[in-house]
Structure formats: structure tokens, C-alpha cells
Amino acid sequence: MNSSILSGKTYFIRTFGCQMNLHDSERVSGLLDSLGCLEVGEPSDADIVIFMTCCVREAADTRLYGQCSSCKSLPKSPSGRRVIAVGGCIAQRDGEGLLTNLDNVDVIFGTHSIAHVGELIAQAFEDGDHHVRCEEIEDKGATSMPWHRATTFHSWVPIMTGCNNFCSYCIVPYVRGREKSRPFEQIVDEVAGLVRSDVREITLLGQNVNSYGRDIFGKPRFADLLRAVGETGIERIRFTSSHPKDLLPETINAMADVPAVMPHLHLAVQSGSTRVLKEMNRRYTREQYIDLVRSIREKIPGIALTTDIIVGFPGETEEDFLQTLSLAEEVRYAQAFTFIYSKREGTPAAMIDDPTPHDVILDRFNRLVSVIETTAHEFNQGQLHTTVPALIEGTSKKDDCMLQGKSPWNQTVHAPLPEGADIDSYIGKIVDVDVDVAKTWYLSGSLVGGPR
């Protein structure tokens, strides 16, 4: 690759989807930085525009097409030539086929080919042609790529890639491949290095972190990994995603025993109906999920449980939905990501006919949202008139004099920036906040003492 072609070029990355995509974007950014490129805040200022895509829901395709189309009306780039690139899950799924609908795209790179994005873009600048690379097996060089972290105090740490579960509605195993765990010692060494770089919080990433190590050791070793990472000195540990069928008692014990593991667990249920769960190929029942929740709360009292729930899965009846509604009322989630089912071609669920009218599905969705809002508000009320330690991430979008951070329970926390104080002295620091307001989606209060 003639890397000098990219030196001095400006780039902009827009990321859609999950935390894995965010980390992939950081790696692409780091690679471009190492080749002499400069990040800018707007696509109009960029010689290179990259879209890191998600294909979990149909709206993602529509959004990508709209974003790429809007690039046609951008003013001329600083260098006089703009390269448009599409990466991530849609790129892996559709490959060269994307060019049929996106005639202004120059580069397409799949989820297993991000280590080659620099050379692909350089070739596009050099010959003006289309360049596509969507390998089926992840390039071993991807995990050793440099990356450009969005913040200095938090880091994504991938522990595995791919998924073996093949939920009937999900396209992820087809675009991310099968489970492949990173070496145990490599992960621990990476976190230790992040601690030396003053990172305060990490998020361990995997499509199903609970099965980490099964492909290496013959059995999951996520609990062992949590304990080893906790010994590095990192202050806050989070992780996602966590499949209920693989959440073992030893992992719950490790969460309870390791002080750095935050008291928050995202445990996607998807449906409260055992019948629908079977159709989804989730491989647990309603009763098993509820029993798991009980065991978690016995070991970790006060834990914040969050979830994903799909409404309108093909064939879902009113009785099925009422089972979901009652489960949400029983578990009392601190937050939930609720979705109306989106058909994904190539998945088993896409072949199931469903005569349920959309207005019925929408009504169910709204009823579920109402329950989640009630339980989320109830959970936050439990922090009212307490002191909460918040890791400050920046300021509120609505008020740049209002600090914004995250509690151990993953709640958004607001507190006024002291008069005359420098915001930079607070970002990435932990502050104590006396909570006097507890709303559905945030806490707010006043600072107690200074940042630490």
C-alpha cells in the first residue's frame, strides 16, 4: 500500500449499532491516524467518509441509503476527491451487492476485514475504482490494530467475536461469524496496560460474553476472566452482551465478589412467553429466566437489571404478549430497550407469516413501554436522598454547565458544574452526587467534595 496517499487526508466516521461497532470504529480511526489522516467533525470537511453499519433492524438499511445519498450534495472535499466507504455488518452481509443501490460508494469492507481499510481507501484514491473486501474469517491482524479511543477514561475491550446461538430472528451470526475467544492472558495484559494509561472503566465486549473461552478451554471461563481483570486495578468493569442460557452460578459469584464489577447486568429476555422463546430459539423458558433473576438478586441485592424485548415476533398472540408484560412487571427492570420485530432476510423467522395488524403490535408496544417507564422510575426512586458516585463523561447536551456522568448502576447522573470550575478537571473523574431528583431516565443533585 502506498500509505503516503493518505497522509494529510481528513476523515469522518459515523457509527450505527452496537458497542462492537463502536469499538470497530475506534480501530478504523486508529489505523487512519497511524497513516497520517486527521479526524474532522463533519462529513463536509472530510476527504474520507466512513459509515460503520448495523443490520439488526430494517431501519438501519434505510438510514445508510439516506446517509450515502446525502453525501452526493456535499461540497467538494478539502483535497478535491472524496472517498465514501461502508463497513460493518451491512457491508459483510451484502458485499459488492451494495453498489447496486449505492453508486457513490467507493469502498466496502466487512466485519472481518477492517485491518485492510487503509489499503482499500488508498487504492480508491489512486485508481478511482471500487474496492470490496468481505472475508468470511477474521483477519488475525485486526485485534492488534491501533485504535483511537473516544475517551481517555473508558475503553472497550473485546474478549471474543462471533456468536453460536442462531436466534431465529437474528442476523448477527451470519455477519459476525462463529464464536472465537481471544487468549485469556492477552485480555488481562491489555486491561493492565489500560490501567497504566489511566483508564478508569472498561466494558468487556462479546456477542455472548458468558460463553467466553468455550472454544479454547472446552468450557466457559468468563467468571475466571472477571476475577483476573479485577486484579489489574481497573476501577470499574462492565460487560455486554449476556445470554441468559449461559449465565453460570460461578459468574454471578464473581460479579458479587469482584468490587470493580458494577452492580448492573444487561440480561436480554426478548419475550416473556415460553412458547415464543422456543420459536426464537432462545433455549430457556420464562420460568428459568425468572429463577435466574432471583438468584442474581440474592447474590447482588440492589443490582440494576436491564434488558431487550421484542414486540410482534411472528405469531405472537395477545396471551404471549401478556406473558411478556407480566414478566416485565415481576422483574421490574431499571431500563429496557424495546423493539418492534424487524424482519431480517436470511433468518428462519423471516419465513414465518404473521397476520397480526400493525396497529395491534403498536398498541402492545406502547403498553410495554408504559410498564418499563413505571419500573425504571421506581428503581431510580431508590437512589433519592442518597449519595451516588458518578464517573463524569462530559456535560449535558442541553446545558454545558451541567455535569453528566454514570452511576455504578449505569444511571445517567447530572450535577451543576461549580461556578468558575474548569470542565476538563472533572471529565474522567469520579464525583459524589447527593441525589435530590430521581426521574425515570436520570438522577440529579449537587456535588459533595471534589473530583477524584
TrEMBL record:
Primary location class: cytoplasm
Cofactor binding mode and count: Binds 2 [4Fe-4S] clusters. One cluster is coordinated with 3 cysteines and an exchangeable S-adenosyl-L-methionine.
InterPro entries linked to this entry: Elp3/MiaA/NifB-like_rSAM, Methylthiotransferase, Methylthiotransferase_CS, Methylthiotransferase_N, Methylthiotransferase_N_sf, MiaB_methiolase, rSAM, rSAM_horseshoe
GO cellular component: cytosol
Enzyme Commission number(s) from the entry: 2.8.4.3
Subunit comment: Monomer.
Record protein name field: tRNA-2-methylthio-N(6)-dimethylallyladenosine synthase
The species this protein was found in: Collinsella tanakaei YIT 12063
Gene coding for it: miaB
